[in-house]
Automatic annotation (TrEMBL):
InterPro entries (UniProt xref): DUF2931 (IPR021326)
PROSITE patterns per UniProt: PROKAR_LIPOPROTEIN
Protein species of origin: Pseudomonas flexibilis
Listed name of the protein: DUF2931 family protein
Length: 216
């Protein structure tokens, strides 16, 4: 691995071994996060190690994609059949990932988790494979579609599930992972153990129905 400080030093010094623009059939791949209904999460940061060993720190973060129906009739148990992209960022100029590190706060507990997701070679191969598929939004078959996105589902108890996704294409599960509790706590230990506050609607749902542990 080449640490980020070395990459910055090379930029300043004009090194010749900087990572070249990745040879991909699209401009960027995407990494996003989602959470079950009412199970609020806050992603502190996502770091990526690409398949050539270059490290990219804090490439994404913030609120995960999530539904919060106000009538408390959402269904947080389990995962949806089609997960979508989630909330995240396009990885422009970064090659396909070998490792994805994510640190997030599960606000319903509250607890802070760390996960290290290894992306196997078969996922890289699938991300480079073009497909022809029927797209519902325009009612016709389209060529040159790619599964160019990785969605991470973050659930209470430190459960992470990763899918490979793409426009008009079915999701493919990559892995399910049990994250570890962060030893330093939220915000890298700089908040005195205080997490972000839980949304009032989510709080009301949990007080009435609880957290469906074991369903993810």
């Amino acid at each position: 691995m080449k640490p980020l400080w070395l990459l910055l030093a090379c930029v300043l010094a004009g090194c010749s071994n900087l990572p070249s623009r990745p040879d991909l059939p699209y401009d960027a791949w995407f990494v996003g996060t989602m959470a079950p209904d009412y199970m609020d999460t806050w992603v502190e940061h996502i770091d990526v190690v690409d398949r050539h060993g270059w490290v990219y720190e804090d490439v994404s973060g913030g609120v995960s994609s999530m539904r919060r129906p106000p009538l408390l009739n959402g269904k947080p148990a389990g995962w949806p059949k089609q997960v979508g992209l989630g909330s995240g960022r396009h990885m422009t100029g970064i090659d396909l990932p070998e490792l994805i590190f994510v640190t997030w706060q599960s606000l319903v507990e509250p607890q802070t988790y760390n996960a290290r997701i290894r992306i196997p070679e078969w996922v890289h191969e699938e991300m480079l494979k073009p497909h022809r598929a029927y797209c519902q939004f325009d009612g016709q078959e389209v060529d040159g579609l790619y599964r160019d996105s990785i969605t991470l589902g973050l659930a209470p108890g430190g459960i992470v599930k990763a899918w490979l996704t793409g426009p008009c294409l079915s999701d493919i599960e990559i892995t399910r992972y049990q994250a570890s509790v962060s030893k330093v706590g939220p915000y890298g230990g700089k908040s005195g153990g205080k997490h972000r506050p839980l949304n009032e609607i989510s709080k009301a749902y949990i007080e009435r129905h609880g957290v469906p542990y074991g369903s993810w």
